[in-house]
What we know:
With 400 residues, the protein is of the alpha+beta class. The chain has helices at residues 2-33, 36-44, 61-70, 114-129, 137-161, 168-175, 183-197, 199-213, 215-224, 244-247, 251-254, 262-272, 329-342, 347-386, 390-399; strands at residues 78-82, 89-93, 97-101, 108-110, 278-282, 290-296, 306-312, 318-323. It has an 8-stranded antiparallel beta sheet with strand order 4-3-2-1-5-6-7-8, with helices on one face.
Amino acid sequence: MRSVRTVLFWLHLSAGVCAGIVVLVLSLTGFLLAFERQINAWVDAPAVLQGPTDAAPHLQIESVIADLRDGGQGVPTELALRNAPNAAIEARYGRERTLLLNPWTAEVVGQPSESSRAFFGIVERVHRSLGLGMRSALGRGITGAANLVFLSLLVSGAFLWLPKSLSVASLKSRVLFRGGLKGKAREWNWHHTLGVWSLIPLFCVVLTGVVISYPWASNLLYTVTGTQPPAGGWRGEGGPQRNGSNRAASSAGAQAATAQGLNQALLTAELQIPAWKMITVSLPKPEDKVMTLNVDKSVGGQPEQATQLVIDRQSGSVKSVKRFSDNNAGRKLRAWARFLHTGEELGWVGQTIAALACLSAILLVWTGLSLAVRRAAGALSGYRQSLTTPEDSDARERLA
């Protein structure tokens, strides 16, 4: 058992030294991204909107679209409405721009912060590919490998955490932070204590990171549940999500979209799902007979709360409903993996836990690398000292 522990220790140490810097980068950027959704919403929020009177109704959505078109803004590809009396309407023009509108007057009251999105865009690129580009095979390969190594470090670290002999004192030294320590003793205590307290959330974050990084890991979720992986990757299977073609449409192509039947479709969606918090509608083309609305009962990041409705433009009747529960088990696990990775699946509590786990990982890397450097320095010092012994001095003189 002692030899197994020794081999595992050196494997743990070697893997940590090799992947430590990349894991540090992933942890730091993960911490910065933890509350991206809330920060962007706070930065983008215009001044509290007030209607003409407290009871003043919002404009009909078709009227809002008409005002945008007549005002020279053009017809958006998507509209996003939030179920709050003073929330702005988001008019999205593909990926090019988004306008925030007063729901009573259709007046443009702001746009999403470019600086905030640019900052988080850079952080996300570093997180996914070390800044080498979102599609960089090299960058994503390095971060994916670091995720795998980190997962092995967590598993091996959990075994090495166990004391050689169980006692109250040995457990306390590994479970509780001890004051008054310095240098190696402090770092050893921090490394063990942080490791045990953050083990479960870090394991979830890192394991889901592996699923996101590797298609084989993603497909494994389908295999173990006996379901067929989608041909185009996990996003290739239908579900409550935004229409990719509309999101990518240019503002020129958006002119072909129409708001006909939108008022009735929104009313149908609100009656169908009274507890909605956000409705996103992809504006159809004139020849389309139906329109698609994505209705979310959460603030985002909880796929089981989202429903996709396909509504007839003429009658306003629901043609089809796609709920999260309609997906196969593999698709559900893959969606949960995406939002467990960020903690959003559990709301702000989960995001806080994920952020703290990332912060803990930063300190684990720092203490682990520091302990490795101290060990290497001690070994080198011992080697140099051995060369100064009388026997070694005589040997060097004979060789000279």
